[in-house]
Write a structure and sequence with these properties.
By secondary structure, this protein is an alpha+beta fold. The strands form five sheets. The protein has a five-stranded mixed beta sheet with strand order 7-16-15-13-14. It has a five-stranded antiparallel beta sheet with strand order 8-9-10-11-12, with no helix packed on it. About 40% of the residues are buried.
């Protein structure tokens, strides 16, 4: 047996071990909740990430369109309509539909388990890179650690159905192809690298920043260390062509043609001309624009954005409320990359030593750089540094083990040190018992709503719930995980946090203006492009159409009997109990002056679930208690009377009953005890009169404006009557 044959078999064995290990670790969550009914619907596990329902919607619609029946087109139209925002053209939906079509499992099982298997593929490029460095044991250790490290596991666990299941796998394959290309200078790696980029961009359109970083590093490497090697410029040229914006098939055709051109030595004299043309094509196709947009979104964030056209309205930016885009402490940063702070520091030192010993690993710097961007740009980026830092500590382990006097001690030391670095990550997995997006009772409400509503109707709720609502009800929404800019969120926030009259009118206005904008874009698309017309936000267009130059005055007019647009479809409000947890965040988007961006006084809203009844007092928090004798609320040293004390309770037929005590009309503070939820709410008068509190918490609906459709403890649905 040749050394190469033995190495190949060992490589395959290590890949199998690491792949199986990764899968088994991801099944721990499944084991924990296997018989837990709230996480199942129709006998299947539900997914645990909101965005997953977006791709699932597209896959579902694609499968409907390819059904094997004579009315396939009509069947497709039944599930996919104009402006429903279903992502039928996205890679995640298309790949999911493909697997669901060929595999003998239910669609729900496919989307739940797909991240388990696809994300585990990351072990392959890790071990192949280590083989290129002649240290395959390092690859096995790095693969074991990287596959279950905190952040990578969190975003690729069972049920975390999102693009992250391949977002590290594909750039790691790209890194592998670049390393082999630079080491061997074989022409085959020109096409492999280009195809890697094409697949990566197809799967994840936001990959351009990382691709450009790889390009820049290769260019720097070529100019500094290998300037006369023509292969480097061939690689740069074909990479740049693959990185252009534009149709995937067109770019693939260009790449294939250029590949056959580059492999012929007689055309070597034209390589620099080709590289120049590729750079021009990249710039002309708008290659740098999305890179700058990403930097502005994640690094140069502003809490309020303003338009420089029209009325110049100011809106609260959603990036200020997205946890994964927020700043994180160093300990969290280190834990998410390596499992704990000590392992992270050792991994970083090991990575620096690895760079010293193997200069070719300098090409991994873009992944480390993007991972470290998490320190200023949000925790989601930490996953990019996971496999590279795993190489660092794995390299140190193999170096330490190599110093052992016997083979037995070498193996034992390697095993012991590997178990030590894996243990904190295993403990994290064991404790990481995240819930599904919705529980079974909430999904029952949505599926029941789907049978009542038409597909052209709108369901209004906060953007967090937009994708699941569309998936389970097959209706339209105003906001979701991808459509949630400040201008989109303002009307929805306004509806949920203002009075029923204001909310009802804004709902009819926003829905009809949304559809009107869709129609205008479709009908006058060429005119919009030719004349560079500006399409203003719904709220700005409403302001102008109703004859105002000040949006604040327009919003005040909602109290009057204004003429509303003609009703073209029904509107439903989906109000889940869980929204109580994010109500203060919801208020941020409409609690500001749109004309100048000034933030209004934040409404008073406090939730207590860990309260204690001491007899004369109810301790709501450490420094907050309610005196039952005087009906005074004490916050620190401040005592204030309460306006109302309300107790809600469901009877055996799940009918809500309310006991309202009016105590002091001069007070602005209300206390609500939701006895079935074991929850106290302390809210000011504005919040008390908001649509969400009145309709969801109290079921006090204006019969002229709303009618109840579904009323449960978990969620309530009302239909708009105007």
């Amino acid at each position: 047996m040749t050394d190469t044959s033995h190495e190949t078999k060992l490589t395959l064995l290590y890949i199998f071990i690491a792949f199986a290990f990764s899968i088994v670790m991801r099944l721990i969550w499944v084991y924990h909740f296997y018989g837990y009914a709230p996480f199942h619907f129709n006998g299947q596990f539900m997914i645990n990430t909101n965005d997953g329902y977006f791709w699932a919607e597209g896959a579902r619609d694609l499968l409907s369109g390819t059904a094997t029946n004579p009315d396939a087109k009509e069947y497709f139209d039944k599930f996919h309509q104009l402006h429903d925002l279903s992502p039928v053209s996205t890679a995640a939906s298309q790949l999911t539909a493909f697997f669901a079509k060929i595999l003998p499992f239910s669609f729900e099982s496919v989307i739940f388990y797909l991240p388990v298997f696809l994300s585990s593929l990351v072990v392959i490029p890790i071990i192949l890179i280590a083989r290129a460095l002649k240290n395959i044991e390092m690859g096995l250790i790095a693969a074991l650690l990287a596959s279950i490290a905190w952040s990578y596991y969190n975003r690729t666990m069972a049920g975390y159905y999102d693009t992250d299941m391949l977002n590290i796998v594909l750039p790691m394959f790209l890194l592998w192809s670049i390393i082999w290309a630079m080491r061997t200078n074989h022409n085959i790696y020109l096409i492999i690298t280009a195809v890697d980029i094409l697949i990566y961009r197809w799967w994840y359109p936001q990959s351009y920043s990382l691709e450009l970083s790889f390009f820049g590093l290769i260019l720097a490497y070529a100019l500094l260390f290998d300037r006369k090697n023509l292969f480097n410029y061939k690689l740069l040229a074909i990479m740049m062509l693959a990185m252009m914006n534009g149709n995937e098939l067109m770019r693939l055709a260009i790449v294939v043609v250029v590949y056959f051109f580059l492999r012929d030595k007689k055309y070597d004299k034209y390589v620099f001309y080709l590289l120049g043309a590729a750079v021009v094509a990249y710039l002309v196709s708008g290659g740098l624009s999305p890179v700058w947009s990403q930097l502005k979104g994640y690094v140069f964030r502003k809490s309020v954005s303003a338009s420089d056209k029209g009325l110049g309205l100011h809106f609260f930016t959603v990036m200020q409320t997205v946890r994964e885009a927020g700043h994180i402490p160093f300990e969290t940063f280190a834990n998410r990359i390596s499992g704990n702070t000590v392992t992270f520091i050792i991994s970083l030192l090991g990575y620096m030593y690895l760079l010293y010993k193997h200069r070719i690993m300098l090409f991994s710097l873009p992944l480390v750089g993007l991972g470290f961007l998490a320190y200023v740009g949000g925790l989601r980026f930490t996953i990019y540094a996971v496999p590279i830092l795993a190489f660092g500590i794995a390299f140190l382990i193999t170096q330490i083990s190599a110093k052992m006097p016997t083979q037995k001690l070498k193996v034992l030391s390697m095993l012991a040190l590997t178990l030590i670095i894996l243990y904190p990550n295993y403990k994290h997995i064991e404790a990481y018992k995240v819930p599904t997006v919705f529980n079974a009772d909430e999904v029952k409400v949505l599926t029941a709503l789907g049978k009542k509503a038409n597909r052209e109707d709108y369901v209004i709720s906060w953007w967090d719930y937009g994708y699941p609502i569309r998936y389970y009800t097959d209706v339209k929404t105003l906001a979701d995980g991808g459509k949630h800019s400040g201008s989109v969120n303002f009307p929805v926030s306004f509806m949920l946090t203002h009075t029923q009259e204001e909310a009802a009118k804004m709902a009819r206005l926003d829905v009809e203006y949304t559809e009107k904008t869709y129609d205008f874009r479709d009908k006058d698309k060429k005119e919009i492009e030719d004349k560079n017309l500006t399409i203003f936000s719904n709220i700005e267009q409403m302001t102008k159409d109703y004859g105002y130059n000040d949006t604040n005055l327009f919003l005040k007019s909602l109290h009057s009997d204004i003429k509303l647009p003609k009703k073209t479809r029904d509107i439903y409000f989906y109000l889940p109990f869980r929204m109580i947890n994010i109500y203060p965040t919801v208020t941020l988007f409409s609690n500001l002056n749109l004309m100048n961006g000034d933030k209004d006084k934040q409404p008073f809203f406090f939730v207590s679930r860990n309260f204690k009844d001491t007899g004369t007092k109810i301790q709501l928090a450490q420094n907050i208690f309610l005196d039952k004798r005087t009906s005074m609320l004490h916050i620190g040293k401040r005592a204030m009377p309460i306006r109302r004390f309300v107790v809600t309770k469901y009877d055996k037929n799940m009918v809500l009953h309310k006991n309202v005590q009016l105590i002091n009309f001069s007070s602005d503070i209300n206390v609500i005890y939701m006895s079935d939820y074991k929850t106290f709410l302390i809210v000011d008068e504005k919040t008390y009169n908001s649509l969400y509190i009145q309709l969801m918490v109290l079921e006090n609906y204006n019969k002229k404006l709303f009618e109840p459709v579904i009323l449960t403890a978990q969620a309530k649905v009302y239909k708009l009557k105007i």
